[in-house]
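Slide 14.
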Amino acid sequence: MRRISVVPASIFSTTIRTLFVSAMALTASASLTSLFPLHADVLYLNEGEEHIGNIEKIGDGKIGFNEADGTKHTYVATETAHVLFSKIRPGDEISQVASITDPLVREILAKAPTAAQHPDSDYVTLFRRRTFTFRPDGSVLHERRKLLKILKEPGLDEANQSIFYAFDREKPDLVFAHTYGADGRVTHLTDDALSDEAIFSSTPEYDRLKKLKFALKKVDIGSVIDVLQRIETIPPTPLRPYVIDATFGQREPVLADEIVIEAPKNLALCIKTYQWTGNAPRMTDTVNASGNRVISWFFSDPKGYIPEQNMSSRSRIFPRLVITPETSWNDAAKAFKESLDKAAPSPERLDAFLTEAGIASGSQMMKAQRIYEAILKKIRLVDLSCFDYGGYDAPSADVVLKKRYASTFARTVLLYHALRRIGLPVDFGFAASWREGGIKREIPSLGQAEDALLRVSIDGETIYVTCDSDYLPFGHIAPAFQGTAAAFLEGDTFTFAITPEGDAVKNRVDQQVFVKLAANGSVDVRDVRCFRGPFETGIRGIKAAKTAEKRISAENTVKRVHPKARLIDFAYSNLDDLEAPVVLTLSYHIPDAALTASDKLMAMKNLWVNFESGSASLASRTYPMDCFVTSETTTTVVIELPDSYDWVPWNRTFSYACSFLDFGASLTQNGRTLLFADRFRVSRKTFQPADAYPQYRACVSAMADLDNQWIVLEKADVQATATPAQKKMTASETSHTDSPGNR
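Slide 15: predicted structure.
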């Protein structure tokens, strides 16, 4: 689920985070600091009570303790569990909800809804304010305050939170984290519930991201949690940009949600809104007493939304706000070009790698494929995006060749310089997933980009290449980047293009099944499955598995055909050959695959037609539906019939066709052979509720009808003497509990 991100987007936790320091909270902080140093002692009693303050004296079996409110108390040592030295935070001196003086919190708690008012919600966001203060030098103070109430057990997960940050240019601070219990007690976060973790410490070249984890204490159903966070940044650059990308609305109710931007009047901001219809946030634009421009957007959605299967990304459905300091694509292009040139490998090291890749002979296409495959096989992939890397400064290709591991971005930099070395025209590009809307030209910042890709010209053919999978052939880009808007460096600027969709050649699955049906209803099967494009990556990943593990995988595959299926043999094609499709060949036996009502009548399901209709189970939709990729699948089943048996024809067709969907199936008998064939093609990935989805559902319904049909066989002498009613007998009325639908 997409949430507000400030590029590098993943430096923030997957929960939306911005914070707000109220005047009352600041006052409380100042008064607390005057009473105690920055750190304080937390005294834990055996009964579970927590007391915050300072230890004055320990002796004679007693502990003298100064409470946070200034009172003094003496505790018996035997009633004390332990003492923790912890940072003292604003509000830590308050132990009871009745003692809270912050008017904001008092008002929110007084009006907090009950679980009965939101019976379908796990929690409700009572208040959230995200404040971004831009300073004259371009640095930003990003603050977030959030109060939410836990209504059901799944909502307890909200007690565990994280702050992601790029430690080389950002400084996080957890100002406070309080739990307001349903019993009126207030519990505070202490330093033992905090941990600061590096994410990519094992790969120091990419180790910019850290995570500050914390867990609020004593969170239970009915509790309200109140968290205040802050991240302070250094000034951004074209290759370390700052982008605010916020989508309003979430599954759980949001009673009050506000984004506030404060910036000098002379700082130009690029502000873009999307899906700004219906329940759009209300905007105000003023100038404060300091002369700074203050823009705020307020949003409320007391209902939340009910998610639908395969629904489009929130950022393409709900109101979306994107803000970045005004700059230009030319500035980004100039900075990145300098970075890309600087990252070039030394000629000696690059030539050694090209020799290692085996490009001494062959066409330019063959050389490009060998270089690409050498990078996939010899440069271990570090799975992190440009967001995780924390910027768009090109990683050194020399370091990649020396260390032999790299991110997708770094792999792409190496491939770029290698292809140029053999004389191929190549453009370096960046892309964002089509599900998130791709790169938007009207937002002049690389901060939108998730990862890198190349556009190569070979023998007059334009080929797009990504390096984010070890198993995709050269020219087969990842599904996320198929049909998306990408930005390519050309000369002194970035130009924009839509990457090609997958087609019936690159995204496809073909299955050929040869079945010998015995008179007792058992079958012997030879099942050949051919995968191309994104469907082959999972199969190729099994190449490193042991033979026993491969056999278990094959056994599981045939069990999905029929629970009684028994694997006889299996084989894979050469999984190291990326240019050839992946082929899996299975041989198996299924006893009782067909039902025998008598010695002259037999019926069986077409076990190799398996449609799942979950994606079209809704009669109507509120939100658009996305499918994985544009693709084509075909199935051919050849059944050798037992002696004297003939198929009882269906006398009906199963097909559906429109401009972006095509399904057809046929079943015919030729001699002793029954031949089934079907084909399903989809050339659109997003289906709007009012027009495209009804057509998608109609197509899936036709496929579901086919899935419900039984193949009925009769001996020839019975067929010859049967009554007209018997000849028309089919099992199409037979109920079947499987969920049919899209393959």
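Speaker note: Confidence is low (pLDDT under 50) at residues 1-37, 719-743.
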